[in-house]
From TrEMBL:
GO molecular function terms listed in the Swiss-Prot or TrEMBL record: oxidoreductase activity, acting on the CH-OH group of donors, NAD or NADP as acceptor
Active-site positions on this chain: 53
PROSITE patterns membership: ALDOKETO_REDUCTASE_1 (PS00798), ALDOKETO_REDUCTASE_3 (PS00063)
Pfam families: Aldo_ket_red
UniProt keyword Ligase present: no
Name of the protein in its database record: Aldo-keto reductase family 1 member
Enzyme class, first EC level, given as a word: oxidoreductase
Its EC number(s): 1.1.1.-
Length: 309
């Protein structure tokens, strides 16, 4: 009853994006190299990384060693916060590490700029230990600096991560935007469905991507009896298969991370989820007593998330 996930969506840039991607956060270089080679050999065609993950070099090597042609692949990387002042240098560095001439998608990782000349290249801090944020640098200014990267051919499409409806609205309504964002990447799973945000973005022509779709490390979702009951109905599919299938049922891209060869394979096997099961998972957080967010770094004093979305 399971089948390989082959769904693709069309981005507003005209490009096709595979609905299933291999997520690569929190994996060592060797793990990520082996996972990417394995995933590509098992049919994955979409790899999601970020400059801040520090793994672009092994991913580039894995892509080359996999034998899969570049034009059959969709590669995403992300601009880190301490490089908001100079996205062109940042993407050139990412491309050099990946060994690629272009990426398919370049995303602003967080809508907050960090001091590029601070005391640490990734997370510069102030004497009180808080992140060294440039409070008067709006992410819309960074977005404007991404547009030339499309014009210069470094990336095919651009987009944003971790923004609220109000920030997305601010971006979409700025009169000087020439290239619309193609993608919104946020944390999404049955404990954090973010229905309003997903609908707002989809209604405005963005493809929405789900990170931590399985509920991240030590996920309570993967042990949930109600989701297990749904999985049993589909020829004893795994809970992970149901979570990946739900993400695709609601027309989002799903970035499932695994470094385990069998789990990488099984996560690419989906079922055609019935609407009743999809609706149950839509209402899951409400039924279970509230939302749970697994990725919530401290960007104080900036407020990133809006729990009403
Ligand atoms: P591992 O990499 O050892 O497989 P998310 O995609 O939500 O960030 O979740 C990833 C977490 O879920 C990782 O800890 C990953 O561990 C684990 N994981 C991935 N696929 C499966 C699966 N099919 N079954 C159980 N755990 C999984």
């Amino acid at each position: 009853m399971t089948h390989q996930a082959t769904t693709t969506y069309t981005l507003n840039s005209g490009a096709q994006i595979p609905a299933l991607a291999l997520g690569t956060w929190q994996a060592t270089d060797q793990q990520v190299y082996e996972s990417v080679v394995h995933a590509l050999q098992k049919g994955y065609r979409h790899i999601d990384t970020a400059a801040a993950y520090g793994n672009e070099e092994p991913i580039g090597r894995a892509i080359r060693d996999s034998g899969v042609k570049r034009d059959e692949l969709f590669v995403t990387t992300k601009l880190w916060s301490s490089n908001h002042n100079d996205p062109e240098s940042a993407i050139r560095k990412s491309l050099e590490l990946l060994g690629l001439d272009y990426v398919d998608l370049y995303l602003i990782h967080w809508p907050v700029a960090l001091n590029p000349n601070g005391n640490h290249p990734i997370v510069p801090t102030k004497p009180d230990g808080s992140r060294d944020i440039i409070l008067d640098w709006p992410f819309t200014k960074t977005y404007k600096l991404l547009e030339p990267l499309v014009e210069k051919g470094y990336t095919k499409s651009i987009g944003v991560c971790n923004v609220t409806i109000s920030k997305l609205d601010q971006l979409l309504s700025s009169s000087d935007i020439k290239i619309k964002p193609s993608v919104l990447q946020v944390e999404l799973h049955p404990y954090l469905p973010q229905h309003k945000l997903v609908k707002y973005a989809q209604d405005h022509g963005l493809v929405v991507e789900a990170y931590s779709p399985l509920g991240s490390s030590n996920s309570p979702l993967l042990k949930d009896e109600d989701i297990q009951t749904i999985a049993n109905k589909y020829d004893n599919a795994s809970i992970a298969t149901i979570l990946v299938s739900w993400a695709i049922w609601r027309k989002t891209v799903v970035l499932a991370k695994s470094v385990n060869p069998l789990r990488i394979e099984s996560n690419s096997q989906i079922v055609d989820l019935g609407d009743e099961d999809g609706e149950f998972l839509n209402n899951f957080a409400e039924i279970k007593g509230g939302i749970k967010r697994f990725v919530d770094p401290n960007w104080s004093p900036v407020v990133i998330f809006d729990t009403n979305e």
